[in-house]
């Protein structure tokens, strides 16, 4: 660990850079960097499109070797990467370290999986011909990523793209470009060709987003962010029928049945709701708690919340950092006020925002028609909805336009199958509060998006299937 974590990215820092990255914990400037305009990004895409030709000709094993070197450098620099991440995102340092390991996992996993991009032979329709399929890289890809996971949202797109033989140009979120640039610097140190993977921070996100959808050399766009921006990009992608992977908003139900282990369920809520101060797309958004255990569960949750320590993510023992900025904290405070006004009952928290900080909050007496139950909260606030039976829980859980992650706690094997099958979500965690991993397919249904990241399904997002018919036999 160097004393200055920014040493990794000094070559990118500019005293007069128009992108000013601030520490949400105290408002201090972390660093200033250049902004890419659409013309510059266009030239970078052209270069990436040239670089991918030689890259795709390497064997998967040769690509894997360079990717493994990149993975190893990320892990060797994990402490500095985590500190950069905490400085620009506010995330508690322990969570940032966890994200580096988790994010690096995608690089390692896809480097290996690239070796298994198997085609097939298919029994044919004529004795004179044979059918084969081969998988080929999609080509030059682009990605747009959010600030809540400044490192992992990039590696889970770039790693499968590179493993498949594609090139990738990434526009990181305005708030967290420094971690992204550090990843680029380490990829170059590892020997990954410079033009193959580029990070393009910009102040003109919408112009660059439109360019990604209109540049003739971009074959695929992968986006993680809000459903609203996903809709804009999907409409723009119609111009060239650009392939899309969209990982959008969620409204995760977290259901606690009367046969659940309540202590385990409380720990699940702490992990799922309060991690990253509630700013993840898979955060529990609504706690659905069965009548008979409602009060006991809320009591236990309240006691456990009392043990959380809020503060600057760099400080020892802090497990709840600030939100990404003061505007977001004020928005969350408004959501809470509105919910109380609509009849919600405050159990803990609920104070005004303090700069970018917002205290962990629980509100009971919430109903599914309230605004808080319909939209992503993106803050450390847990609304509790009562339900009577399994059918009602499933009905409330599915009463949303979103379908990303769902959670439930139960020990009954019959109920576990019924509820898992009944939830209209891309991912369901049972008796667990955290579900994302490079080995599993992450993604949503309904307005939470399309496509999967992680696992062998994540690789196929960056490959085209070609059917070859061999006749004249
Ligand atoms: P979040 O709520 O996570 O900030 P957004 O969807 O607003 O979600 O942002 C996610 C990413 O999308 C960021 O990198 C942001 O800069 C980018 N973005 C926002 N608006 C647009 C747009 N019109 N076109 C392309 N990218 C955009």
TrEMBL record:
Residue ranges annotated for the Aldehyde dehydrogenase domain, each copy included: 18-466
Active-site residues (renumbered): 247
A Pfam family recorded for this sequence: Aldedh
Main enzyme class: oxidoreductase
Entry keywords, A to Z: Oxidoreductase
Enzyme Commission number, as recorded: 1.2.1.16, 1.2.1.20, 1.2.1.79
Family annotation (InterPro entries): Ald_DH/histidinol_DH (IPR016161), Ald_DH_C (IPR016163), Ald_DH_CS_CYS (IPR016160), Ald_DH_CS_GLU (IPR029510), Ald_DH_N (IPR016162), Aldehyde_DH_dom (IPR015590), Aldehyde_DH_Superfamily (IPR050740), Succ_semiAld_DH (IPR010102)
An annotated GO BP: gamma-aminobutyric acid catabolic process
Transmembrane segments: none
GO MF term list: glutarate-semialdehyde dehydrogenase (NADP+) activity; succinate-semialdehyde dehydrogenase (NAD+) activity; succinate-semialdehyde dehydrogenase (NADP+) activity
Family designation: Belongs to the aldehyde dehydrogenase family.
PANTHER family per record: SUCCINATE-SEMIALDEHYDE DEHYDROGENASE, MITOCHONDRIAL
Name by which UniProt lists this protein: Succinate-semialdehyde dehydrogenase/glutarate-semialdehyde dehydrogenase
């Amino acid at each position: 660990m160097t004393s200055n974590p920014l040493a990794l990215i000094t070559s990118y820092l500019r005293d007069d850079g128009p992108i000013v990255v601030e520490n949400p914990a105290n408002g201090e400037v972390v660093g200033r960097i250049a902004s890419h305009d659409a013309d510059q990004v266009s030239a970078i895409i052209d270069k990436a499109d040239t670089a991918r030709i030689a890259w795709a000709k390497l064997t998967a094993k040769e690509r894997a070797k360079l990717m493994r070197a990149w993975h190893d450098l990320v892990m060797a620099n994990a402490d500095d990467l985590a500190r950069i991440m905490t400085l620009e995102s506010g995330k508690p340092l322990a969570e940032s370290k966890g994200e580096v390991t988790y994010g690096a996992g995608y690089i390692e996993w896809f480097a290996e999986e690239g070796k298994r991009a198997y085609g097939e032979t298919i029994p044919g329709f004529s004795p004179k011909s044979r059918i084969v399929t081969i998988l080929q890289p999609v080509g030059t890809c682009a990605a747009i990523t959010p600030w809540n996971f400044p490192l992992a949202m990039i590696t889970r797109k770039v790693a499968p793209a590179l493993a498949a033989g594609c090139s990738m140009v990434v526009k990181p979120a305005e708030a967290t470009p420094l971690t992204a640039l550090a990843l680029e610097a380490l990829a170059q140190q590892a020997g990954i060709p410079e033009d193959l993977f580029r990070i393009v921070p910009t102040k003109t996100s919408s112009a660059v987003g439109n360019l990604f959808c209109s540049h003739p050399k971009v074959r695929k766009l992968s986006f993680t962010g809000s459903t609203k921006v996903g809709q804009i990009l999907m409409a723009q992608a119609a111009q060239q029928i650009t392939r899309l992977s969209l990982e959008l908003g969620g409204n995760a139900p977290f259901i606690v049945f009367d046969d659940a282990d309540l202590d385990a369920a409380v720990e699940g809520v702490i992990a799922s709701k309060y991690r990253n101060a509630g700013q993840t797309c898979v955060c529990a958004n609504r706690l659905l708690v069965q009548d008979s255990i409602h009060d006991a569960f809320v009591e236990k949750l309240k006691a456990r919340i009392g043990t959380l320590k809020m503060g600057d993510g760099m400080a020892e023992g802090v497990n709840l950092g600030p939100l990404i900025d003061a505007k977001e904290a004020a928005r969350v405070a408004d959501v809470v006020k509105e919910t109380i006004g609509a009849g919600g009952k405050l159990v803990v928290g609920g104070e005004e925002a303090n700069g970018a900080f917002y205290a962990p909050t629980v509100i009971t007496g919430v109903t599914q028609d309230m605004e808080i139950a319909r939209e992503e909260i993106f803050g450390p606030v847990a609304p509790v909805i009562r339900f009577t039976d399994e059918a009602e829980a499933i009905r409330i859980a599915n009463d949303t336009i979103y379908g990303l992650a769902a959670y439930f706690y139960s020990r009954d094997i019959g109920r576990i199958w019924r509820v898992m099958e009944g939830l209209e979500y891309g991912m369901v965690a049972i008796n667990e509060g955290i579900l994302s991993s490079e080995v599993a397919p992450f993604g949503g249904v309904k307005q939470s998006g399309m496509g999967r990241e992680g696992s062998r399904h994540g690789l196929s997002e960056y490959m085209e299937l070609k059917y070859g018919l061999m006749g004249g036999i």
